[in-house]
Amino acid sequence: MATIELTQANFEPTITNNDIVIIDFWAEWCGPCKSFAPTYEEVSNKHEDIVFAKINTEQEQGLAGHFNIRSIPTLMIFREQIIIFSQAGALAGAQLEDVIEKAKGLDMNMVREEIAKQETAPA
Which residues carry out catalysis? Predict the structure, then answer.
């Protein structure tokens, strides 16, 4: 599956209507972003069940700001509308595959329980 470009306009429906969405925050001037792009595209072709998206941080500063993107490339994975992974820096293909397998294997009921505990815990 080819990667899609996410914008403020299509961000919410993309996250809401897909089980797993992987986002690459990038910019045109970023050397490491350009180096990572072919790896990201190659891995996206192996996973038809996942949406691979890109957010240009220069054009979508609102989204970049909302997610506190301070360094690019930054990779973020949403599963069932919950951020389960966020890491700055490019990954090798094997590392990205490993992260994807771990994301697919997560017990989301346990994740939601943990989030609920954290929300109700005294500060």
Answer: 30, 33
